[in-house]
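Materials and Methods. Structural model of Histidine ammonia-lyase. The 522-residue sequence of Histidine ammonia-lyase from Microbacterium aurantiacum was retrieved and submitted for structure prediction as follows.
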Amino acid sequence: MSTAVPSPSARTVEIGDATLRPADVVAVARHGAPVVVSAAARSRMAASRAVIDALAEDTRPHYGISTGFGALATTFIPAERRVALQASLIRSHAAGTGAEVEREVVRALQLLRLQTLATGRTGVRPVVAETYAAMLNAGITPVVREYGSLGCSGDLAPLSHVALAATGEGEVRDADGVMTDAASALAAAGIRPLVLTEKEGLALINGTDGMLGMLLLALADLEMLLETADVAAAMSVESQLGTDAVFAADLMALRPQDGQARSAANLRALLADSEIVRSHRDPAACTRVQDAYSLRCSPQVHGAARDTVDHARRVADRELLSAVDNPVLTADGQVRSNGNFHGAPVAFVLDFLAIAVADLASISERRTDRALDPARSHGLPPFLAHEVGVDSGLMIAQYAAAGIVSELKRLAVPASVDSIPSSAMQEDHVSMGWAAGRKLRRGVDGLARVLGIEVLTAARALDLRAPLAPAPRTARVRALLRDAGIDGPGTDRFLSPDLERVAALVSSGAVARAGIPESTKE
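The predicted structure was written out as tokens:
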């Protein structure tokens, strides 16, 4: 399961006149927004192609134009064999294996490669970009496999599977998700298969587009999940008779971390006008000096994750401004080798986000566990069970959360610290950014499920505090669950469907919107 943001409008995304925004990538990749290549981009590509054509006629070798690739870069290829060279490059590099990669990831990497083509820095003909746009608009999604990219020289194998489909070879899924061969899908959509010429094969596969696409999709999800984490924490603080005094703005100002301040503001708003919180504000009625860390430090942990997301977003924004290829056409018309395809900048932040995801889930699971323990829940029944001893309540829901958190800790081990040399030691240091993106996607899914279990638990605990009423916002979240068929306290029932329903509510953004309406965000 992958999380999703609310569907944007179906406006057309223009490629080539302005930098793609993160929201544009999500719109095309996840929601099928159409794309169009601008006239200015077509003009730039035509001009840069003229440079490539001139170099192709030169008797001196030029990398990627009249030579082999990688460790074979010193091998000169005669003109009559260069079309075969391009086809061989794509076929041989489309060497992915394993499970299929998700449709939205494939569309994101194809869109991002299209953007780089449209810069006019890669030397491809305009028809190449037009073909990629047509495939996206027709809903033709090349089959890309899980394993194959080392995150250096770009996401070679994933991008090669896309390029292979554009030439009419390999497997794709059509707009209905049906597996078919690329030639049939292109014919049905009226798209002529590409015949690649000098430089074009290399230009289609030498980029960080897969890892960047996964980063942008994860950032969209995490922005929503951070709001959800604040909602869940507020419900836990409220239902466990915690205090909101520690979230005061003047206390947050003593440590001016941006994310912490934003999370604390959310918690204050979520707990405003709560009868439950008000019931134990009097020191005479509550003798506890301070709450446990998992309650009291929620804005600090959530805020650190917010700041990590902000850092990752800055890296992603810079990457969206990039034209990643090797060799690349510079502004003065030269074709120059470079190392911009190395995925380290993206790989590092993908790993950093995996750490933040694991810790967000960890503190959430700790809040859930406190609600189920009568020694720490301040008057709630063990495991929130109806008939203690006969019923187990939410005991095993916490097991599920704990199991996911343990998995997320393993997924937080960075991929980017690893490197395995390849291509006969020519490519002797690689980023593993694709692997970092793959594990982050699994982490984001796990975080959504852990937060869902906390929300489900806290909603039941709020019911058990009756007749005291929760805050208006947390009451809306509880009502959302009840309307979705997730019942409150009562005898034990088949729990797995409830966990799936609440995970779907979290992943769709419904929980975040119920607790923190768009119109009230600071």
